[in-house]
């Protein structure tokens, strides 16, 4: 994630190496200040009802440079109404809306940086940042047609379902489901791999707590006094699914720590 912050704050950062992570921007020609980075949720609107720049940002991942002037402008847009039209969105005929969350930050941020304050933002590649492992193709059964949700021609859009695990920086668990649902079978292998990584991260935290607090016992194998059940669910998901989900157990602080706090 360092690159996301460095490109915003470090004037010496080589922006050309960020080209792979950008959705549309030609980084070689982009010399302006970068104040907002995000992904879009193209699943919210069936193409071609909106152009890509009108689609709402995905509210689960927003990187914003703090700026009092921008904050006040946001407030003014909201208080003035921003020519918001129900079903249409911000900007009236500009149509920054018509999808879930369009009346709040998902539509408002798209309108603000897409129209009022343009060329200060970068749409990140949604296959690497905030990935939902979603299908890039929209099918119209009535017309028997298919097209890219991003409106790229000839169905030549990137398929996030085929992204290599090591290329992903952050995940939005929605299409895949939630890690605590404890799925064993997945239609998409990448979803399974991401679930395993999530449970590895939880296990890492539990082991750290076990080292710091000797009495800590989350009841999962390999941590504290947890016993190891050799089921596939336990092996793949760190003992958190057997088969139902075991909620995270937080360590109880001893009296000395509580006194210091």
Regions with pLDDT < 50 over 5+ consecutive residues? none
How many domain regions?
2
From the helix content, strand content and strand pairing, which structural class follows?
alpha+beta
Average per-residue pLDDT, rounded, comes to 88
Distance between the termini: 31 Å
> Hey, roughly how much beta strand do the residues contain?
5-15%
How large, in whole angstroms, is the Cα Rg?
22 Å
Sheet with most strands: strand arrangement:
2-1-3
| Count of extended strands | 5
Helix tally equals 6
> What characterizes the major β-sheet?
3 strands, mixed
Helix content: 25-40%
User: How are helices and strands ordered from N to C?
Assistant: HEEHHEEEHHH
- Global geometry: globular
Structure description:
There is one protein chain. This protein has 261 residues and is of the alpha+beta class. The protein has two domains: 2-125, no CATH class; 179-260, no CATH class. It has helices spanning 2-9, 68-80, 105-116, 189-212, 232-236, 255-260, and strands spanning 36-40, 57-64, 121-123, 137-140, 145-148. The strands form two sheets. It has a three-stranded mixed β-sheet with strand order 2-1-3. A hairpin with a 4-residue loop joins β4 (137-140) and β5. It is globular. The two termini are 31 Å apart. 26% of the residues are buried. The mean pLDDT is 88.
């Amino acid at each position: 994630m360092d690159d996301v912050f460095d490109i915003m704050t470090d004037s010496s950062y080589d922006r050309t190496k960020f080209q792979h992570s950008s959705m549309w921007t030609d980084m070689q020609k982009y010399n302006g200040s970068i104040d907002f980075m995000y992904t879009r949720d193209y699943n919210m609107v069936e193409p071609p009802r909106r152009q890509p720049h009108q689609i709402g940002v995905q509210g689960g991942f927003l990187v914003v440079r703090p700026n009092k002037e921008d904050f006040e402008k946001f407030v003014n847009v909201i208080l003035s109404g921003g020519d918001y039209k129900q079903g249409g969105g911000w900007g009236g005929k500009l149509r920054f809306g018509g999808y879930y969350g369009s009346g709040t930050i998902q539509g408002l941020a798209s309108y603000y940086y897409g129209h009022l304050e343009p060329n200060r933002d970068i749409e990140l590649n949604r296959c690497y940042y905030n990935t939902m492992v979603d299908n890039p193709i929209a099918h119209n059964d009535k017309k028997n047609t298919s097209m890219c949700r991003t409106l790229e021609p000839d169905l030549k859009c990137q398929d996030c379902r085929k992204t290599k695990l090591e290329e992903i920086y952050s995940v939005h668990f929605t299409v895949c489901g939630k890690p605590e649902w404890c799925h064993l079978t997945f239609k998409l292998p990448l979803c399974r791999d991401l679930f395993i990584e999530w449970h590895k991260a939880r296990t890492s935290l539990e082991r750290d707590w076990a080292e710091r607090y000797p009495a800590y016992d989350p009841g999962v194998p390999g941590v504290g006094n947890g016993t190891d059940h050799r089921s596939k669910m336990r092996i793949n998901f760190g003992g958190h699914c057997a088969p139902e989900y075991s909620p995270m157990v937080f360590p109880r602080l001893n009296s000395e720590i509580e006194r210091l706090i």
